[in-house]
Amino acid sequence: MKGMTLIVKQISQLMVPSIFLLGIYVILHGHLTPGGGFAGGILIAGCFVLLVLAYGSDEVKSEVRKWRASFSESLGIFMFWFLAVLGLVQGSYFFYNIIAKINPGHPGQLFSAGIIPLCNMAIGIEVAGALFAIFITLAVLKAGEKL
Amino acid sequence: MNVLPLFVAIPLGAAFLTPILSKAGNRISAVLGLCANGFIMGLSIWIIQYSKDTIVYFAGGWQPIAGIPIGIAMVMDGLTVVMLLIINVVGFFAMLYSLNYMTRYTETGKYYTLFLLMMGGLNGVVLSGDLFNLFVFLEITAIASYSLVAFGVEAEELEASFKYQVLGGTASAMILLGIAVFYQLTGTLNLADASRVIEGIGLNPAVIFVGILFLVGFSLKAALMPFHAWLPDAHPSAPAPISAMLSGVVIKVLGVYTLIRMFFNIFGIGRMSFVLIVFLILGTLSMVAGAFLALSQKDFKRLLAYSSISQIGYVIFAFGLGTPLGFLGGLFHLINHASFKSLLFLNSGAVVYRTDNRDMEKMGGFSQRMPVTGTTSLMGSLSIGGIPPLGGFWSKLVIVIAAVESHHFILAGIAVLTSIITLAYYLKVQKMTFFGKLSDLYKGVKEVPVLMCVSMVTLAILSLGLGVLLLPQLRNIILDPAVNVIAGGLDYAKMVLGG
Lengths: 147, 499
Fold this sequence. Notes:
Structural class of chain A: mainly alpha
Number of domains of chain A: 1
Shape of chain A: elongated
Order of helices and strands of chain B: HHEEHHHHHHHHHHHHHHHHHHH
Largest sheet of chain A: none
Largest sheet of chain B: 2 strands, antiparallel
Largest interface: A-B, 21 and 16 residues
Structural class of chain B: mainly alpha
Oligomer: heterodimer
Number of helices of chain B: 21
Radius of gyration of chain A: 18 Å
Radius of gyration of chain B: 21 Å
């Protein structure tokens, strides 16, 4: 896939940082405002997709990039699993909110709700990685190429 | 009981870890998968001692308030223990078999990931005490198995997987619609709580509508006769250990277990007695038609797939009788079928591994070259054919006695005749594949590697000796608690929520 014109490249260059930041904001405030790990992850994956569309897919085809998408997907879901098991080990219940037990924080503040923001981050990484990997597989790779 | 979530957490954790480690080589994924499966198999055997209790576990520590559950519940009772045993024992040996068998394929790291996801999903379905979680785990299992069926990525496998996806997706859509109406109706997703609420509502048309949606959806997953079209394509196309899992475990957990749990424990079979008649009709139809279709097959694995339809027919037929003896027969046949059908699929895999051929007309005389495969498949065939005193004989005997006891004389006769047809087509398999003259093409065929032999021998011993489950000492701790759960019907709610 070839890149697009200079206008598209410039505009997406300007847009991508703010979209990325919005994605991080949505993930971090998942326990306070609408959205959360999934919606934020989609936004972050959207940045990468925008860059690929604007600048072409040659860069993303390198072995390292493909591996990173797949790796961050696995890492995100593994982090989520780890938080669940941590509850089992520390608090004797699967998915037990161990941080909220120690320091519940105040409802409505950013640092509250225990492991839920951490879970949102894990989901964000997972969704961003997975969606980008799906995008590469479906849109960029030709038949026979492997992720 | 902190071990209950481990049945789900360990396979899922291993599944998420394998892609991270896959850079270091596929061998690590295989070892990790084997360790995870071995551990949960040990756990499922250890947990038998609690088979008489009903253990409820609330994820996240969200205890019920005033008897109304607010968190996600995991429930383990007698029926769950039996299902966990089937899943994890067959799963472990299928995994052990994969270590050698999967050397035929590339990208085996992904295979182990999907296999472990499927294991986690299966354990989740039987442990879940919450309808929506049951659906989520059901989908995890189903989606993992769609990909595993297509794992060879040949045209035939992709087509089978696509067919499986379309029909599996239809089933899931019906189940999800059912769950939505069910939630609207009862205001709860906890199975035990919902059972109580439905008792208050009574049998209004919406409840019957949900019942029919579940009946069709889960019957599609169980591949009962009018809904069976995907199975004879999907099961033979998968790699052999996956065929063994699909036929031996997946259709039982996603189809039979869910049907039993929903209709006997949640809706209450007394209120929905039409379901028993449907079970009898569908069961008999699958039993007979599956057997006749199997009789004319030339493809080894396809024959086994049709035979699965027929044997699942037996199980559903036995539950349709609606008597405790029928439940015992059905459950016992379920256990037996898990052992010998997975064994036979592994045997067919062994033949494919050495000859790359599934057409029985081109085979013959393999017993001389592959003594372990030949002997174990003979044991499996005789057991499924109902030769006394092997395992399959006892379960079919119990089913026939139960049918006679509840005055279904004609159906009992049909069950016996179907058993004879079953024996006939398995003897055909033996004659065409393992006995007879070895063709020149296959003079160089050798026995399969040792891990594959170990899996087949263990499952063969199980399928020979499972008749011992009828001995009072063993029956007391394995079969009877499960039968009591099914026969207890709506007591399920009382057992789970107390009071």
